[in-house]
Amino acid sequence: MFGLWSALHAFPDTPHALTVAILMPLALCGLYFAAGRLNRAGDKAWQQAGTVLLGAFVVVTFVWAIAFDSSQASDFGIYYRCGTHLQSDLAAWMSSCRSHFFYQPDNTYWTRSLVYSAPFGVLLGDHYPLFKIYNASLHGLTMALMFFGLARLKGPRVATIALLVFGVYPEWFYSVTLATPDNLALLFVVSFLLLLPGLGSGQRVVLHVAGLAVLAFLANLARTIGPVMIITAALWALTFMTRGQWKRMLGQLAAIVVLYWLANVIFVQVIRAPSQGQFDLLTRVSTIDISQPGQDFRLVFAWLDQFLPLLSASDRASVITHKILLEFSHGFADYPGYLFAKASILFNGMGYFWFSSNPLDLNPDSSSVVKTITVPVGAAMPAVLIASMILQLGLAAFGMVRARRDQLLCASIFFMSMFYVVALGFGDTQSRYSLLIAPAIAIACAIALFPADTGRAEPGTARPSNIPWAGAGVLALAVFYAVGSVLAAKLALRIPVPLTQARQDAPYQLADGTPCNTDPLVFDSSYKRLKVVAPARSTCFRFSVPLPAQATSYTFFVSRDQFPFPFEERTPSPYHYRVEQQGVVLYDGELGKDIVRWHKFNTLQGKETAPAGPARITFSVSRTGPENAAEPFELWLLTPASKALN
Q1: Which residues, 6+ apart, have CB-to-CB distance to 16 below 8 Å?
Q2: Is 272 left (phi over 0), alpha (psi -120 to 50) or beta?
Q3: How does DSSP classify residue 390?
Q4: Which residues are listed as membrane-spanning (predicted)?
Q5: Cα–Cα distance for residue pair 117/477, rounded to 1 Å
Q6: From the centroid of its chain, how far is CA 496?
Q7: What is the DSSP-derived secondary structure letter of residue 500?
Q8: What Rg, from alpha-carbon coordinates, does the chain have?
Q9: 462 within 8 A of 400, measured Cβ to Cβ
Q10: Judging by DSSP bridges, how do beta strands 522-525 and 584-590 pair with one another?
Q11: N or C: lower Cβ tally within 10 Å for the chain?
């Protein structure tokens, strides 16, 4: 429902919205009458229609792949380059298979390339036309698996409708000409959703357990969605276990988790993979900024690539936790609006359409594999894509309230829900990411139209309506956000935010007689960031930040105002700064060409000679560059602690 409303909000203009509003009912009527004729003909006609539809989709996919070309922008350029330009030295290849936007080693790109584009590169090398055929083959295999798998589980009606919905999903079709691991990941997602309902059947237990663990492992390599699958399996098992089988179900679930974990450990040991870049859940959550639904990627990259690597192992968890608490305590009331804004991005249906049909921008990760982009573009295409997205989301929402406790539908709902938690709740969001839940949406749409078919494999599980439960769920969410907002507001009052209490100190003189701090400073502060702006003519200034009375130690970051990428010029910082507390110098130095520096100190309250009273940290800053080099002096995440540093 949330995605449906956000997709409606994403229409480019009113005329297109009105046009689609007129044409969509006509399309639905046509689909309804066609389905009615097939119903009268029986399951055999549905099977034949689905087979013809599958053949048509496969033919169109291959024709599209042969006829049209796209440049490989941004991440797609990395996947294509890494997969088609292999090296004999695996360590050297892993080191080179990285984004130009990161300073630190990252294993996201080479793991995805290893399972997706590298197998093609080993056999055929750098050959873009054949690479498109490879993508088309993955598409055809995924659609065939969905159709024949659903036909066996739910019958030909559900299989045919699900195939139709999946085949016209906006993000699916346009990914054929791009080197994106989603083309492979969707094969794993479809396999996982079809295999999960068999977990509680008691038949072929070893096959189901091993298969689900392997699929989660491969999906994690291809698209980092293994944890989403594991949690989906856990939710599904908890929902459908009975009193007589709960021990067996929990045992199977534990076996899946252990096998998944072992597969990852063995992979790291065999391939000798570096651990850098495998951001854990806590780190991923820490990138959230509720004030900015459209995240500033430069700032997100800086946090992951320049701030976090500076932290010691003993301080990492406390600083990350402090940031997360600050974000949610000061922004939880705005969280629904934050989710809606991100959902409007996720469900606009134009991610892969834009990447496949637009020329490259100035991105060092991009690869120009063709001279001319030939993917067709029309002025009405954005509206058509959004309309298709709205239709599918509407049917999926209808299916969720119409059919209850269907095992395959619940597996799809749980998978979508966990994806929403990651993509909308905490991580960065792009419209192309919605492709990962396209199979789940298609299954929900098909069950919405033919809920009676859910009894084919699960006698007695189909129910006529689930509207009361849906209403109760909406009410529960409303209560959750109301209570959460109150608790977050109370938490915000208890969590110290020293940066918002910074103040300018009295004027002073340097040893050479230069007057300092004579002009007023401008403080631009929030709960996590403090920008201090001095007039261009000021060469030195001083300000102080208070600490809570109970603090015995504290940490903070000093940073540049801008966060240049590795391929951008890095100029020396114009500032030299000294950190003091009650006349005791704790640090005296400068950033130089560093972008970020992390400091941690004990407060003088922890010493017997310290005078009583609140502690204030004093920053004495001098500027060495010319006036036109002035930039804000910045502090981040001043984190007080009640435990003294060793």
Answers
A1: 380, 382, 383
A2: left
A3: H
A4: 15-34, 46-67, 133-151, 158-177, 183-200, 212-238, 250-271, 335-355, 375-401, 408-427, 433-452, 472-493
A5: 42
A6: 29
A7: G
A8: 28
A9: no
A10: unpaired
A11: C
Q: Quick: pLDDT tens for 123-137.
A: 999 999 999 999 999
Alpha-carbon gap, residue 106 to 97, rounded angstroms: 9
Q: Say which residue, 624 or 54, is predicted with more confidence.
A: 54
Task: Read off the tokens for 595.
Answer: 């972008």
Please name the residue ranges forming H helices in 155-279.
156-167, 170-173, 182-195, 205-223, 226-240, 246-271
Q: What is the largest CA-CA distance in the chain?
A: 98
β-pair partners for 585: 580
The whole-angstrom separation of Cα 55 and Cα 144 is 9
- The half-sphere exposure of 88 on its side-chain side, counting CA atoms within 13 A, is 0
Structure tokens at 514: 């230069």
Q: Which two tokens stand for residue 66?
A: 């042969």
DSSP state of 545: E
**pLDDT on residue 362:** 79
Tokens (6 digits) for 593 = 């060409």
Closest CA to 450 of 643, 97, 162, 127: 162
Q: Which two tokens stand for residue 409?
A: 């539908």
pLDDT over 50 (residue 252): yes
pLDDT band at 179 (very low <50, low <70, confident <90, very high): very high
Paired tokens of 37: 């004729």
Number of residues that this document lists for the chain: 646
Per-residue pLDDT tens for 16-32?
455 555 555 566 566 65
CB contact at 8 A, 95 and 129: no
Strand partners, 159: none
Record the tokens describing residue 28, joined without a space: 């639905």
Which of 2.60.120, 2.40.160, 2.60.420, 2.60.40 would CATH assign to domain 498-641? 2.60.120
Euclidean distance between CA atoms 62 and 138, whole angstroms: 11
In angstroms, rounded to a whole number, what is the distance separating the alpha carbons of residues 412 and 84? 34
Strand 553-559 to 575-581 pairing: unpaired
Average pLDDT of the segment spanning 73-87: 92
- Please name the residue that has the structure tokens 């088609």: 84
Q: 467-494 and 313-331 helices cross at what angle (nearest 10)?
A: 110
Confidence of residue 520 (pLDDT cuts 50, 70, 90): very high
Cβ pair 608, 544 in contact under 8 A: no
The span from the CA of 641 to the CA of 646, in Å, is 13
Residue 348 tokens read as 């606009």
| Residue-range domain boundaries for the chain | 2-278+347-464, 498-641
- Using a 10 angstrom Cβ sphere, with 0-12 exposed, 13-18 middle and 19 or more buried, the burial of residue 601 is middle
Taking a C-beta distance cutoff of 8 angstroms, is the pair 110, 94 a contact? yes
State mean pLDDT over 231-248.
83
pLDDT band at 492 (very low <50, low <70, confident <90, very high): low
User: Do the Cβ atoms of 339 and 421 come closer than 8 Å?
Assistant: no
Distance CA 496, CA 637 (A): 11
- Rounded to 10 degrees, the C-alpha dihedral 266/271/276/282 comes to -20
Distance CA 212, CA 191 (A): 9
Name residue 541's beta-bridge partners: 621
